[in-house]
Write a structure and sequence with these properties.
Order of helices and strands: HHHEHHEEHHH
Number of strands: 3
Strand order of the largest sheet: 1-3-2
Structural class: mainly alpha
Number of helices: 8
Helix content: 55-70%
């Protein structure tokens, strides 16, 4: 199953490559931008946790993205010591364009399916995966033993 997903991803990923490269960001910057855009206004400390990096490292990446007008810093009205970060409208527009390319390619793939049964199977599989993603994660064996 995972091999089939990987194969699909390898076929689809090149379609986004030029748009992602057009952003002219490092991988760290792209990850930071993506997490911040998906989270909405997010505290710098929480952004660092989600990225798995130190706050100082995250702050440096955010500084560069602010200079590029991709992120903006905001004051946190509930805690003046905290800084919130959010994607700028320009960054959201660029990320939306990349996502729309993926949706467009999906529409093409769905239109190419041979019959209604194949389409129904794909729809059912997507719904099953969506439901699974919406459920809280199950504890791992290690977590259960603690």
């Amino acid at each position: 199953m995972v091999e089939a997903y990987d194969r699909l991803h390898r076929l689809l990923a090149p379609m986004h490559a030029s748009d992602v490269l057009e952003l002219d960001l490092t991988i760290a910057q792209l990850k930071t931008l993506y997490v911040a855009a998906m989270a909405g206004p997010i505290r710098m400390s929480e952004l660092a946790v989600r990225l798995g990096t130190a706050v100082s490292t995250t702050s440096g990446v955010v500084d560069r993205l602010v200079q590029l007008d991709m992120l903006e810093r905001l004051d946190d009205s509930s805690d003046r010591r905290q800084v919130l970060v959010q994607a700028t409208p320009e960054a959201r527009q660029r990320l939306d364009r990349i996502n729309e390319l993926g949706r467009g390619r999906l529409r093409e793939l769905l239109a190419s399916l041979r019959d209604a049964d194949e389409l129904a199977t794909v729809e059912r599989a997507i719904k099953i995966l969506t439901d699974a993603a919406a459920r809280p994660p199950r504890p791992t064996d290690t977590e259960e033993r603690q």
